[in-house]
Amino acid sequence: MTALLTIDGISKRFRGLAAVSRVSFEVQQGDIFAVIGPNGAGKTTLFNMIAGALPPDEGSITFAGQQIQGLRSDQIARLGVGRTFQLVRPFPALTVEDNVIIGALMQTKTVHDAEKIARDTLARLDLFDKRAQIASSLTLPDRKRLEVARALATGPKLLLLDEVMAGLRPTETDRIVATLRDLNRGGLTILLIEHVMRAVTALASRILVLHHGAAIAEGNPEQVLRDPAVVESYLGAESL
Amino acid sequence: MRDIWQRLPTRGKTFCLAALAAAIAAPLVADRYLLSVLILVFYFAYLGQAWNLLMGFAGQLSLGHALYLGLGAYTATALWTLFGIGPWIGVFIAIPVAAAAGMIVGWLGWRFAIEGVYFALLTIAFAEFTRIGFDHLQITGASAGLFLSVNSPGSDKWWNLGGGPLLYYYLALILAAAATLLVAWLRRSPLGYRWLAVREDPEAAQAAGIDIFRAKMIAMLISASMTAVGGVFYGFYYRNLFPSQVFDIGRSIEIIMAPIIGGLGTVFGPIVGAILLTPLGESLTALMQHFGINTPGAKSIFYGLTLMVIITLQPSGVWPWLARKLGLDRPRA
User: Fold this and answer.
1) What dihedral do alpha carbons A120, A121, A126, A128 form, nearest 10°?
2) Cα→Cα distances A223→A63, A90, A195, A211, A218, Å
């Protein structure tokens, strides 16, 4: 099986601070791959490098057989990497539907078709009834769903989710978890950063643990969550 | 096109048709003075549409649109006075000249991540040094100005954009109506959606696969080209051009007033703004003349005050508010 995404030894420094150092891993087609780690571990920096928002200082990123490090984020998006932002960034003054149409226009040339894709996607994320609302008027859970809907409407092969569960109530988390599982069954590969362990354990087929910018463990959830290094550095307090 | 029409509520359709019919019939009742005011209304509605495309839709602030207006005006009038090339051909040379200037400004700004206020300063700078350049360009009369002769052969013919107020009236009306249709169509096109995304959040737009540099450059290309056409109209309507007038920052400000008052990023905002603002400004001038007051800059003060009132009462402009009041806004499907 060839990997959909191969990260090979990528690093990023900010003024001498190593945010990410020599991280390598592979995401297989059909995986739900979770990146966990304490605050400041470099998870979002890692994400931004994959999505093209930041160029890595070294290392390579291969997506679907093509090297993508150093490409612009819109080029990477057009290759099939959809992303959400940790702090949600819907287009605030536009309607929910227009937000998603903009995503959908990546896979189709006509607004008519984009509308159709947008409506299907909104239905999938339980936002269909709110499609005429202005995005800035949505509640936080709805804005998070909109963020996922917009990324999904681009028709990605790989979906990058940056803490979409953070700040949600457990019932809302379970709703998103169910939606993501569903999407994954439909063949979508997902790479997620998550703090909410309830979601990680429910979803992830593989987990990578980052600590101070370095990968300290990788494997299936049972192995990783029992790893003494992981328990000490990250899960310590939470797992008790 | 049909799609846009169908999206309008019935009341909106009636309203559009009635307004258009009234505009077409206006010369039957309007005297020469009123006609000249209406010409200015359509002229500012047209230029407002051009500027609004860049600012209201793509979110890029230009305070130097006088550059494209002036280049359009100078190119077409110079071609006519120097080589006898008429404006209907000249306009197709004026457009690429202004568009090229727009591309240079856009490229310099956006390639080097000069955004927002800094980009606006760049646009002012370009208009200013073009003004200074034209002040010294002998072939177009330098600072003494460029004049369109009224008695050279053929200069009074419509195909050379010469003639009575009716010609200019209908020309301005067609320009404003065509620009509105174009903007309404672009708004619902993939390009229009991309512009809105760029305006709302460039980084999120990029994450949705949008090449934001390209989107902004296209907006600039269309906006500068449309403004150049307005410049050709300006040149042949006023029939004299001075660098200190046509490239002036005041000219740029004048262009942006109607869309701001009417409603940024709306299709009808520039028209509503022009309808409100131009007659008010003109009657102020008339009143001042009547009372023998001669205060240069009074109009600017008036514009400034109007802007303050509108921004305080209706920050998103008059049109969104008016549309709600009249029940003309899009029904939420």
Assistant:
1) -60
2) 27, 37, 18, 17, 8
Question: Distance between CA atoms of A4 and A158, rounded to whole angstroms?
Answer: 8
Query: CB–CB of B190 and A103 under 8 A?
Result: no
Q: What is the pTM of this model?
A: 0.91
- 3-class state of residue B2 by DSSP: helix
What the block records as the tokens of B319 is 């049109």
CB atoms within 10 A of CB B11: 12
C-alpha A205/C-alpha B290 separation (Å) is 83
Write the pLDDT tens digit of every residue in B262-293. 999 999 999 999 999 988 888 888 888 888 88
CATH of the domain at A223: 3.40.50.300
ipTM of this complex prediction, to 2 decimal places: 0.89
- End-of-domain residue from the set A108, A132, A155: A155
For A109, the closest chain B residue by CA position comes to: B190
Per-residue pLDDT tens over the stretch A54-88: 999 999 999 999 999 989 999 999 999 999 998 88
Q: Do B209 and A150 touch (CB under 8 A)?
A: no
pLDDT in tens, A28-46: 999 999 999 888 888 999 9
User: Under a CB-based contact definition with an 8 Å cutoff, are residues B288 and B106 in contact?
Assistant: no
Q: Both A75 and A168 in a single domain?
A: yes
The DSSP result for A118-145, as a single string, is HHHHHHHTT-GGGTTSBGGGS-HHHHHH
Q: Residues A140, A52: one domain?
A: no
Cβ–Cβ of B332/A132 closer than 8 Å? yes
Q: Is the pLDDT of residue A1 over 60?
A: no
**Residue of chain A with shortest Cα separation from B187:** A111
Q: CB–CB of A173/A142 below 8 Å?
A: no
Q: Are residues A95 and A74 in the same domain?
A: no
